[in-house]
Amino acid sequence: MRGTSAAMTTLLGRNSGGAAHGVEVCTAAAGQTKAGAPSLMEAVVDRANLWLAYQKVVGNRGAPGVDGLSVEQFADWLRMYWPSIKAALLNGQYLPQAIRAVDIPKPAGGVRTLGIPTVVDRLIQQALLQVLQPIFEPTFSESSYGFRPGRSAQQAVLAAQRYVQEGRRWVVDIDLEKFFDRVNHDLLMARIARQVKDVRVLKLIRRYLEAGLMRDGLVAQRREGTPQGGPLSPLLSNILLTDWDRELERRGHAFCRYADDCNIYVRSETAGEQLLKQMKRFLAERLKLRINDAKSACAKPSTRKFLGYSLTGQRQARLRIAPQSLQRLMARVKELLRQGRGRSLRHTIETLNPVLRGWIGYFQYTQTKSALENLDGWLRRRLRCLLWRQAKHRQGRTTMLRRQGLPEDRAWRSAHNGQGPWWNSGASHMNVAFPKRFFGALGLISLLDSQQRLQCHP
């Protein structure tokens, strides 16, 4: 990495201000654009801004695009080709390459298509993002939480809880049908042009929107949509959907939007049903978008999930983890344990812990500890089941239980009980032989204990 950084420093030059200077460049560019000066592209290719973008792209790693160029090869490639690319950007003549289509299975079925740009196009998009974000950020709604600096999904969930606690006992849960595939380019570009006056930047964004999608060696041209996968797509989605936010604000509604997932909180079912019809019409007429009828509804918040969370039906509307989120974690744990059958228990726990930490870090705001207690117990039982399987035969299981302190007679009877691994993992002999403290000594984290620590030290 040291050699890569040195090569990039030689190529672009490194300002003494480092990363902080890059922020100043973006802020200055925002001021110039609002004043109408068409000089935004100069800010995009500014050395400090590009250095920040380069660090971000390399830090994210990522797969190669259609040209096969990897992040590891990028610095040498830039040294040779960047001067001509920069000139093309400044002249308004740069043409992005096609993006590589990658289909990712969705948890609930179906696939989500990601578009993987080439590494150089990721660099340029990231540089664009760093300059455009400060321009558009002040225009966004306070009720928009997705892909914005200093905002998070957890903030949206906490705001949703507050709206329900204030007496809005119905939610209009709106899911946009294939939003990233259906973005209208003309509508989006018109909204970008409200703030951006540099024609070169506008042309470049339009070219990124229209870049072909390569699948199985064939490139399909696109006339709508902004595929997920490039650094610029999240910002573009917020720019387009800000009109929706402003319409909801104009009507005086309490809502939370995270990307294309929007929940609007109302005080009656009648009001909610009427609003759902009105929003369906508004989105179709104004933004050329469609609501997914199968996933959208007016319902009680306790029956819906929002960003992985749900709410209890009581008046205090306590936050809880949605059942689908629990099931996804359990499926992931099962997958990791299947991979760990031939490995030591300590190695398996070291593999599990990062997944568990990340999961509880997100769901730390849950207010129903029983789900975490049950998950902790289920996880330890899965590990006991793994140990039982690894012992393989009766003699090995007898030896394993004796080593853990069980009397010889009980160890022998337990190993010869004729029951399967899952039954034995929940039986008293395995719980006595491998109690909670045994797994704690090997480093297994407790979801409940971790949540309590996070709540005490946010």
Work out the number of β strands.
10
How many separate helices?
A: 21
What summary fits the major beta sheet?
Answer: 4 strands, mixed
Approximately how much beta-strand content do the residues carry? 5-15%
Report the span from N to C terminus: 33 Å
The residue fraction in helices comes out at: 55-70%
Q: What class would the helix/strand composition place it in? A: alpha+beta
Global Rg: 27 Å
Order the strands across the largest sheet as they lie in space: 2-1-4-5
Shape, principal axes of CA atoms: globular
Low-confidence stretches: 13-37
Q: Overall pLDDT, averaged? A: 89
Reconstruct the topology from this structure:
Elements (H helix, E strand, L loop, with lengths): L1 H11 L5 H17 L5 H5 L2 H14 L13 H18 L7 E7 L5 E6 L2 H18 L16 H13 L4 E6 L3 H4 L2 H8 L6 H12 L2 E3 L2 E3 L12 H18 L3 E5 L2 E6 L2 H18 L10 E3 L9 E3 L7 E3 L1 H17 L5 H18 L6 H23 L2 H10 L4 H8 L5 H5 L2 H6 L2 H6 L5 H10 L2
Parallel strand pairs: 1-4
Antiparallel strand pairs: 1-2, 3-7, 3-8, 4-5, 6-7, 9-10
Helix pairs in contact: 1-4, 1-5, 2-4, 2-6, 4-6, 9-11, 13-14, 13-15, 14-21, 16-17
